[in-house]
Amino acid sequence: MLGKADYTQVMGILNVTPDSFSDGGLYTTIENAIARAREIDEARAEVIDVGGESTRPGADPVSSEEELERVISVTERITESSEINTLVSIDTYRPDVAEAALDAGADIINDQNGLNDPEMRSLIATREYKAVPMDAVNLPVEREYRSDTEDVVAEVCDRLQKNVERAHAAGVASD
Prior knowledge:
The structure is a single chain. The chain is an alpha/beta fold. It has one domain (11-169): TIM Barrel. The protein is built from five helices and five strands; from the N terminus they run E-H-E-H-E-H-E-H-E-H. It has a five-stranded parallel sheet. The longest helix is centred in the last third of the chain and has 18 residues, at 152-169. The radius of gyration is 16 Å and the shape is globular.
């Protein structure tokens, strides 16, 4: 389902990174990644979220080329599989990675940078794709980053609200 839902939707995470904090790099081979995508589909998640760069604190940033190498073949295999019927999102903050993943069959952009990048907003608006604005204040990851915020929830809400307003101004639909 790609519109406004009146129920909770589940997104299954598929990190194809060797340094993921959620799965310890279990899905770095195409075979393991596709097997995990099948498990997520069988568990009836609405979305399989494919990520190719860890944003955990202290993670090493990767280039666009490396992120593309990690996510595109996995995205293609999932979306071409007759056994997997779940929507696919691409978890990235890079417009070139998002566009390549859309071309490979992804349905949704899960933007770690909250639609802050004008090029990302333009891509979403022009291609009329769905997007999930997330909030990560340390992109690309700086190994020694330390937040000095006193009210993280208020700051995240403020940043997301401003980014959503910018996205609407760029032509991104509310849904």
